[in-house]
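Deliverable D2.4 — example input (structure tokens):
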């Protein structure tokens, strides 16, 4: 009997020890599981921190580019602000544009009733447009005037422009007191040296250029016979001389002196 009790007690103690061992194993598993969870959480946080550091580094590296982009955007906004007029009551005139031909008007005459001007006749005032697109007005009877008609395809005209420009660049000058301007006429896009605006710009032609209209009205009214074509008008507005052909700069200088003396 006593042996049975001892056997039972031993079996009970063994069961209790087994239960304790099982609980201990479960506890250890839980502890290890908690450790793994914390380890994985720590890894995720570490990766996140590395990602944030990399993002911050790239952002700092890109700041010069962002600054440049911001500066360009600011300049564009400034240009837009400067280009607009804050005062709605006023408007800015459009910038002049290069033109190769434009309407011509003579004071006191209609387009279908224009005269053919001859020596000794009074020249009416002329309005038109320069080759740069600006308004042009010549008032008759105010200043002695020399006009030269130029055609972009004319070899003598090209020589005239080139020689006179070089002569002026060398330090020479034409006498003051004479109104001198040129007329671009007989313009044709299929002929050499077109457009005349580019030709005269390349030559650095320093004088005003009045453009003839598509019908070459100025050439017709002044009776053009060839190019270059010279027209001299005295200080009272009367036509003095018409002549065609190239003039050397020295001869043109003498012509100006004669115009002033007359």
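Example output (designed residues):
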């Amino acid at each position: 009997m006593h042996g049975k009790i001892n056997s039972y007690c031993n079996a009970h103690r063994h069961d209790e020890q087994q239960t304790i061992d099982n609980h201990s194993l479960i506890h250890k598993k839980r502890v290890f599981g908690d450790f793994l969870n914390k380890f994985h959480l720590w890894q995720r946080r570490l990766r996140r921190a590395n990602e944030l550091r990399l993002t911050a580094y790239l952002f700092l590296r890109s700041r010069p580019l962002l600054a440049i982009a911001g500066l360009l955007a600011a300049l564009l906004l400034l240009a837009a602000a400067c280009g607009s007029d804050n005062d709605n009551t006023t408007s800015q005139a459009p910038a002049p544009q290069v033109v190769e031909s434009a309407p011509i008007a003579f004071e006191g005459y209609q387009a279908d009733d224009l005269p053919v001007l001859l020596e000794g006749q009074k020249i009416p005032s002329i309005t038109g447009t320069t080759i740069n697109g600006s308004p042009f007005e010549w008032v008759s009877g105010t200043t002695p005037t020399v006009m030269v008609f130029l055609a972009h395809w004319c070899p003598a005209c090209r020589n005239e422009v080139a020689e006179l420009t070089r002569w002026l660049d060398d330090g020479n000058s034409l006498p003051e007191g004479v109104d001198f301007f040129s007329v671009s006429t007989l313009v044709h896009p299929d002929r050499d040296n077109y457009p005349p605006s580019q030709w005269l710009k390349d030559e650095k032609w320093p004088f005003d250029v009045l453009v003839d209209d598509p019908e070459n009205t100025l050439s017709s009214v002044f009776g053009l016979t060839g190019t270059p074509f010279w027209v001299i008008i005295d200080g009272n507005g009367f036509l003095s001389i018409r002549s065609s052909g190239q003039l050397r700069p020295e001869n043109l200088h003498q012509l100006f002196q004669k115009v002033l003396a007359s």
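Strands lie at 105-106, 126-129, 135-138, 145-150, 179-184, 209-211, 229-233, 239-244.
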